[in-house]
Amino acid sequence: MTTENDFKLIDNCNRHLNYLRISITDRCNLQCRYCVPQELIPKLSHTDILTYEEILRVVQAATRLGISKVRVTGGEPLVRKGVYDFLQQLVASEGLKDVSLTTNGVLLHDNLPKIQSAGISRINISLDTLDRQKFHDITGFDDFKQVWQGILKAHRMGFYPIKLNIVALRGVNDMELVEMARLSLRFPFHIRFIEYMPIGRAAFRPESLLLVPEIKDQIGVLGNLIAVQEDRHDGPAQRYRYPDAKGEVGFIPAISQHFCNKCNRLRLTASGQLRPCLLSDHQEDLKKVLRENGSDRDLADIFIRSVNHKPSDHNLVSQKPAHVCGQMRAIGG
Ligand code: SAM
């Protein structure tokens, strides 16, 4: 059981930080219109990106400071060479109690056995539509079938929970939200509706926003939403269940109801920067310390500095895009 003494990273707002999200690559095999910036941004070079050994060293430093939970993300983490061996080593890291993965699911089907034998059971899969043509329109690729087969196979293999992340966008997938929610009746999936965050210069403008109160209203046609008691894995999601459903629905109201006061996260970018907040540009250069043979104490100091810069709140509101220098895929969504 986690006790107060396990937390060494406590920020100025008394938030206990125990969760590190790690983007292992800025590359992705999809081009989701809401994620990819409109202008061409050069990809990070091989040497810009932290090696797996470097990431594991950061994790070692982090666990000594009370980080016990890690999520591997990107970009698309499964496109990086050597990822399955890395996941295995990560899961074996002393002090980590929980390692999970976020993926777009394109490479999932054939690689699930390797993910499972690495010791990962909790996967989040992004799926913004159940329609093949719309999937192509959103992502630029005709991969819906592949992703869906991967999801079903993960379910058959016993991965749990399988969370399906849907970024709700007006005029794009708003007609499908009820169908997505309906999946939770048949499958033990956690269907999670995420408010679109207008970050930087991605293709959608604030008018595309569809906020949680409206989503809840729409999917309420399927039955009463009964609140589910929170557990330690919850993070910011508000969890509900329809009566007799196998799964759940959840909401991540990044805009309509900031959850900054509950935020327990730090983020390691693909290029080795430690960010205390997805929506602030403050970052500390861990890569420099790693590559200049910094000591464990130096790494710990970077963590502590980062925590001291964690903003109390983000300033993202529906009518004003955030000017975050950096793309979701490099920071890690
Ligand atoms: N490639 C993986 C995937 O697709 O899940 C991991 C990286 S992706 C950046 C992580 C999550 O960020 C996805 O669920 C994606 O839908 C979400 N995301 C990207 N841009 C977003 C935005 N502007 N607002 C809200 N969520 C966003």
Give the termini distance in whole angstroms. Answer: 28 Å
**How many domains would you count in the coordinates?**
1
Rounded mean pLDDT is: 90
Could you tell me the number of beta strands? 12
Strand order of the largest sheet: 7-8-9-6-5-4-3-2-1-10-11-12
Shape, principal axes of CA atoms: globular
- Find the structural class using helix and strand composition: alpha/beta
CATH superfamily: Aldolase class I
| Number of distinct helices | 10
- Helix and strand run: EHEHEHEHHEHEHEEEEEEHHH
CATH T-level fold name: TIM Barrel
Radius of gyration (Å)? 19 Å
Q: Can you identify the CATH class? A: Alpha Beta
Q: How does this structure look, described?
A:
The structure is a single chain. By secondary structure, the chain is α/β, with parallel strands linked by helices. It has a single domain, classed as TIM Barrel (Alpha-Beta Barrel). Helices cover 28% and strands 16% of the residues. The protein is built from ten helices and twelve strands. The protein has a twelve-stranded mixed β-sheet with strand order 7-8-9-6-5-4-3-2-1-10-11-12. A hairpin with a 6-residue loop joins strand 8 (238-241) and strand 9. Helix 3 packs parallel to helix 5 (144-156). The longest helix has 13 residues, at 52-64. It is globular. The two termini are 28 Å apart. The model has no long low-confidence stretch (mean pLDDT 90).
